[in-house]
Design brief:
InterPro entries: FN3_dom (IPR003961), FN3_sf (IPR036116), Ig-like_fold (IPR013783), Interferon/interleukin_rcp_dom (IPR015373), Type-II_Cytokine-TF_Rcpt (IPR050650). The chain is mainly β. The chain has one helix and 16 strands. The strands form four sheets. Strands 3, 4, 6, 7 and 8 form a five-stranded antiparallel beta sheet that branches. Strands 11, 12, 14, 15 and 16 form a five-stranded antiparallel beta sheet that branches.
């Protein structure tokens, strides 16, 4: 078969999700099942210079993680994608501009608890792309007795910090939850993580 009119990808969106910048799209109408896609990006300080993204060339999945391909986390970028099938290519479709620094969306941290005789040590890990490890991520931690609204708050800890809570005076079922924080143009935070509950000083 000769040259087919390949319709361009739809709903092309640059979104920030769970600490990452990801370009997503949907296949164009009537796309063959084995269509592939190629992605490029440009940054606002070098317009009309579309850069290749080696790991998003001739891919079959409808998304491309751009986080660690970006030259700067502080400059707005946009991306474009086209469909390829055999010798046919669709037109490029562009996303809107975004930058990591001000648009980043955070995922809740994952808590690890180490329960000892008279304390709990709590650490929070974040699912970060390697290239943003060095940014100043923090977290807030809340502790409360199950069923109570009264929360003890431990705030503004750096990502690698462990919070040690003295549990000598605590008895019963206690729950912990945390959220990630990031200071950009304004303070951003994730949702709180699902509570993790532990029985403390349980005699029985």
């Amino acid at each position: 078969p000769g040259h087919v009119q390949l319709l361009p990808p739809q709903n092309v969106t640059l979104l920030s999700k769970d600490f990452a910048m990801i370009l997503t799209w949907a296949p164009g109408e009537g796309s063959p099942p084995d269509v592939t896609y190629t992605v490029r990006y440009e940054s606002q300080d070098r317009l009309d210079k579309w850069m290749k993204v080696p790991h998003c060339r001739n891919i079959s999945r409808p998304f491309c993680n751009l986080t660690c391909a970006l030259p700067s986390l502080y400059v707005k970028v946009r991306a474009r994608v086209k469909a390829l099938w055999g010798r046919s290519q669709s037109p490029w479709v562009k996303s809107q501009f975004k930058d990591y620094y001000s648009d980043v969306e955070l995922a809740p941290p994952v808590l690890t608890l180490n329960v000892r005789d008279s304390s709990i040590c709590v650490s929070a890990s974040f699912p970060l792309p390697t290239c943003v490890e060095n940014l100043t991520w923090k977290y807030d931690l809340h502790l409360w007795e199950a069923g109570s609204e009264d929360k003890k708050k431990y705030e503004g800890y750096f990502r690698k910090d462990t919070v040690t809570i003295n549990t000598t005076a605590l008895r019963g079922n206690y729950c912990l939850s945390a959220r990630a924080l990031y200071e950009s143009i304004n303070l951003k935070h994730s949702e709180f993580s699902q509570p993790v509950c532990v029985l403390l000083n349980h005699k029985g």
